[in-house]
Amino acid sequence: MAEEPAAEIQLLRSLKVKLIEILSADADFVLQHADSRCLLSDRGYQQVKACRVPIEKVTELLDHVIQRGPEAARGLLALLNDQALQETFPMLNTVNTLLSSGKSETSRKRKTAPDLQEIIPAKQICNKGSRLVKEKQLMAVARTIGKSWREIGRLALDIPSVKLEQIEEDHSQHVERVFAMLRYWSARQRRKATAAHLHLLLSQEDWELPPESIDFLLETD
After folding, report:
1. Do 81 and 28 touch, CB atoms closer than 8 A?
2. Is the whole model's pTM more than 0.70, yes or no?
3. CA of 168: how far to CAs of 84, 142, 177, in Å?
4. Angle 45-15-46 (CA atoms, 0-180°, nearest 5)?
5. Between these two residues, 151 and 4, which has the higher pLDDT value?
6. What is the pLDDT of residue 5?
7. CA-CA distance, 84 to 89, in Å (whole number)?
8. pLDDT tops 60 at residue 139
Protein backbone atom coordinates (compact mmCIF):
# COMPACT_ATOMS: atom_id res chain seq x y z
CA MET A 1 0.00 0.00 0.00
CA ALA A 2 1.45 3.36 -1.02
CA GLU A 3 2.43 5.66 1.80
CA GLU A 4 0.27 8.74 2.16
CA PRO A 5 2.05 11.99 1.17
CA ALA A 6 3.27 14.26 3.96
CA ALA A 7 0.96 17.03 5.16
CA GLU A 8 3.21 19.69 3.61
CA ILE A 9 2.97 18.08 0.18
CA GLN A 10 -0.79 17.57 0.47
CA LEU A 11 -1.15 21.20 1.45
CA LEU A 12 0.95 22.44 -1.45
CA ARG A 13 -0.98 20.28 -3.91
CA SER A 14 -4.28 21.63 -2.62
CA LEU A 15 -3.03 25.16 -3.29
CA LYS A 16 -1.43 24.39 -6.63
CA VAL A 17 -4.10 25.71 -9.00
CA LYS A 18 -4.56 28.93 -7.05
CA LEU A 19 -0.82 29.47 -6.68
CA ILE A 20 -0.27 29.08 -10.42
CA GLU A 21 -2.90 31.73 -11.02
CA ILE A 22 -1.38 34.15 -8.50
CA LEU A 23 2.35 33.64 -8.99
CA SER A 24 2.27 33.67 -12.79
CA ALA A 25 2.05 37.46 -12.59
CA ASP A 26 5.83 37.47 -11.96
CA ALA A 27 7.18 33.95 -12.32
CA ASP A 28 10.83 35.00 -12.48
CA PHE A 29 10.53 36.84 -9.17
CA VAL A 30 9.26 33.68 -7.47
CA LEU A 31 11.92 31.53 -9.11
CA GLN A 32 14.79 33.69 -7.89
CA HIS A 33 13.41 33.78 -4.35
CA ALA A 34 12.98 30.00 -4.36
CA ASP A 35 16.50 29.60 -5.70
CA SER A 36 17.93 31.89 -3.01
CA ARG A 37 16.44 29.54 -0.38
CA CYS A 38 17.92 26.46 -2.07
CA LEU A 39 14.50 24.96 -2.77
CA LEU A 40 15.52 23.63 -6.20
CA SER A 41 18.32 21.43 -7.41
CA ASP A 42 20.74 22.87 -9.95
CA ARG A 43 19.13 20.92 -12.77
CA GLY A 44 15.65 21.82 -11.54
CA TYR A 45 16.52 25.51 -11.52
CA GLN A 46 17.73 25.36 -15.11
CA GLN A 47 14.61 23.46 -16.22
CA VAL A 48 12.27 25.96 -14.60
CA LYS A 49 14.26 28.92 -15.87
CA ALA A 50 14.08 27.55 -19.44
CA CYS A 51 10.28 27.76 -19.43
CA ARG A 52 9.21 30.83 -21.40
CA VAL A 53 5.52 30.93 -20.48
CA PRO A 54 4.92 32.21 -16.91
CA ILE A 55 2.16 29.68 -16.17
CA GLU A 56 4.40 26.82 -17.29
CA LYS A 57 7.31 28.21 -15.26
CA VAL A 58 5.28 28.34 -12.03
CA THR A 59 3.79 24.90 -12.69
CA GLU A 60 7.24 23.41 -13.24
CA LEU A 61 8.51 25.12 -10.08
CA LEU A 62 5.70 23.74 -7.93
CA ASP A 63 6.04 20.24 -9.38
CA HIS A 64 9.80 20.24 -8.79
CA VAL A 65 9.43 21.33 -5.16
CA ILE A 66 6.73 18.73 -4.51
CA GLN A 67 8.94 16.01 -5.98
CA ARG A 68 11.81 17.01 -3.70
CA GLY A 69 9.73 16.11 -0.65
CA PRO A 70 8.32 17.56 2.60
CA GLU A 71 11.35 19.67 3.49
CA ALA A 72 11.32 21.55 0.18
CA ALA A 73 7.53 21.89 0.39
CA ARG A 74 7.89 23.40 3.88
CA GLY A 75 10.43 25.83 2.53
CA LEU A 76 8.15 26.96 -0.29
CA LEU A 77 5.20 27.41 2.07
CA ALA A 78 7.45 29.55 4.26
CA LEU A 79 8.49 31.56 1.22
CA LEU A 80 4.85 32.23 0.34
CA ASN A 81 4.49 33.91 3.72
CA ASP A 82 7.56 36.09 3.18
CA GLN A 83 6.90 39.83 3.24
CA ALA A 84 8.47 40.38 -0.18
CA LEU A 85 6.10 37.89 -1.81
CA GLN A 86 3.12 39.13 0.15
CA GLU A 87 3.79 42.66 -1.12
CA THR A 88 4.35 41.53 -4.71
CA PHE A 89 1.36 39.18 -4.76
CA PRO A 90 -1.41 40.62 -2.53
CA MET A 91 -3.71 37.79 -3.60
CA LEU A 92 -1.62 35.40 -1.51
CA ASN A 93 -3.74 36.57 1.42
CA THR A 94 -6.55 34.46 -0.01
CA VAL A 95 -4.46 31.32 0.46
CA ASN A 96 -5.33 31.07 4.13
CA THR A 97 -9.03 31.01 3.22
CA LEU A 98 -8.39 28.10 0.89
CA LEU A 99 -6.52 26.27 3.63
CA SER A 100 -9.43 26.40 6.06
CA SER A 101 -11.81 25.01 3.44
CA GLY A 102 -9.51 22.14 2.52
CA LYS A 103 -8.68 20.87 5.99
CA SER A 104 -11.58 18.44 6.27
CA GLU A 105 -10.31 16.38 3.35
CA THR A 106 -6.86 15.65 4.78
CA SER A 107 -8.06 15.26 8.39
CA ARG A 108 -9.85 11.96 7.58
CA LYS A 109 -6.61 9.96 7.70
CA ARG A 110 -4.22 12.46 9.27
CA LYS A 111 -4.24 15.26 11.75
CA THR A 112 -5.71 18.51 10.53
CA ALA A 113 -3.47 20.23 7.99
CA PRO A 114 -1.71 23.20 9.60
CA ASP A 115 -2.21 26.81 8.52
CA LEU A 116 0.42 28.44 6.38
CA GLN A 117 1.85 30.31 9.36
CA GLU A 118 2.00 27.14 11.46
CA ILE A 119 3.96 25.16 8.89
CA ILE A 120 6.78 27.70 8.52
CA PRO A 121 10.08 26.16 9.65
CA ALA A 122 12.05 27.88 12.37
CA LYS A 123 14.92 28.40 9.95
CA GLN A 124 15.48 28.27 6.21
CA ILE A 125 16.41 24.98 4.53
CA CYS A 126 19.72 26.37 3.38
CA ASN A 127 21.54 27.87 6.36
CA LYS A 128 25.03 27.91 4.92
CA GLY A 129 25.79 31.07 3.02
CA SER A 130 22.30 32.43 3.71
CA ARG A 131 23.62 35.86 4.67
CA LEU A 132 24.12 38.65 2.17
CA VAL A 133 27.39 38.35 0.31
CA LYS A 134 30.14 40.73 1.47
CA GLU A 135 32.42 42.85 -0.69
CA LYS A 136 35.51 40.95 0.44
CA GLN A 137 33.80 37.75 -0.75
CA LEU A 138 33.00 39.38 -4.07
CA MET A 139 36.65 40.36 -4.49
CA ALA A 140 37.76 36.83 -3.65
CA VAL A 141 35.37 35.46 -6.27
CA ALA A 142 36.53 38.07 -8.80
CA ARG A 143 40.07 36.69 -8.53
CA THR A 144 38.86 33.23 -9.58
CA ILE A 145 37.02 34.30 -12.75
CA GLY A 146 39.03 34.44 -15.95
CA LYS A 147 38.40 35.45 -19.55
CA SER A 148 34.86 34.08 -19.51
CA TRP A 149 33.69 36.86 -17.18
CA ARG A 150 31.44 38.46 -19.82
CA GLU A 151 29.74 35.14 -20.54
CA ILE A 152 29.25 34.55 -16.84
CA GLY A 153 27.82 38.03 -16.47
CA ARG A 154 25.35 37.63 -19.31
CA LEU A 155 24.25 34.02 -18.81
CA ALA A 156 24.75 33.27 -15.11
CA LEU A 157 24.09 36.68 -13.57
CA ASP A 158 21.64 38.04 -16.19
CA ILE A 159 23.57 41.29 -16.59
CA PRO A 160 22.84 43.22 -19.82
CA SER A 161 25.64 43.36 -22.40
CA VAL A 162 25.45 47.16 -22.39
CA LYS A 163 26.26 47.22 -18.68
CA LEU A 164 29.18 44.83 -19.17
CA GLU A 165 30.58 47.04 -21.90
CA GLN A 166 30.29 50.04 -19.62
CA ILE A 167 32.11 48.19 -16.83
CA GLU A 168 34.87 47.24 -19.26
CA GLU A 169 35.30 50.87 -20.29
CA ASP A 170 35.32 52.15 -16.71
CA HIS A 171 37.93 49.70 -15.41
CA SER A 172 41.25 48.83 -17.01
CA GLN A 173 42.26 45.92 -14.76
CA HIS A 174 40.59 42.54 -15.19
CA VAL A 175 39.95 41.87 -11.50
CA GLU A 176 38.39 45.29 -11.05
CA ARG A 177 36.07 44.65 -13.99
CA VAL A 178 34.90 41.35 -12.55
CA PHE A 179 34.53 42.86 -9.09
CA ALA A 180 32.43 45.72 -10.51
CA MET A 181 30.26 43.19 -12.32
CA LEU A 182 29.68 41.21 -9.11
CA ARG A 183 28.93 44.39 -7.16
CA TYR A 184 26.37 45.37 -9.79
CA TRP A 185 24.74 41.94 -9.48
CA SER A 186 24.69 42.26 -5.69
CA ALA A 187 23.14 45.74 -5.77
CA ARG A 188 20.47 44.65 -8.21
CA GLN A 189 19.58 41.49 -6.28
CA ARG A 190 19.32 43.35 -2.96
CA ARG A 191 18.02 40.91 -0.33
CA LYS A 192 18.50 37.99 -2.71
CA ALA A 193 22.24 38.65 -3.02
CA THR A 194 23.23 35.88 -0.63
CA ALA A 195 26.50 34.01 -0.71
CA ALA A 196 24.60 30.77 -1.31
CA HIS A 197 22.74 32.26 -4.27
CA LEU A 198 25.96 33.47 -5.87
CA HIS A 199 27.62 30.10 -5.28
CA LEU A 200 24.72 28.35 -6.98
CA LEU A 201 24.86 30.61 -10.03
CA LEU A 202 28.61 30.15 -10.41
CA SER A 203 28.55 26.39 -9.88
CA GLN A 204 27.13 25.57 -13.31
CA GLU A 205 29.36 23.29 -15.39
CA ASP A 206 29.52 25.75 -18.27
CA TRP A 207 31.62 28.22 -16.27
CA GLU A 208 34.24 25.65 -15.20
CA LEU A 209 35.04 27.41 -11.94
CA PRO A 210 36.94 25.05 -9.62
CA PRO A 211 34.63 24.17 -6.69
CA GLU A 212 37.40 24.83 -4.18
CA SER A 213 37.69 28.41 -5.45
CA ILE A 214 34.13 29.39 -4.52
CA ASP A 215 33.13 26.91 -1.80
CA PHE A 216 34.11 29.49 0.81
CA LEU A 217 30.81 31.18 -0.02
CA LEU A 218 29.05 28.35 1.81
CA GLU A 219 31.07 28.70 4.97
CA THR A 220 29.22 29.94 8.04
CA ASP A 221 30.55 32.91 9.95
Report:
1. no
2. no
3. 33, 14, 6
4. 5
5. 151
6. 63
7. 9
8. yes
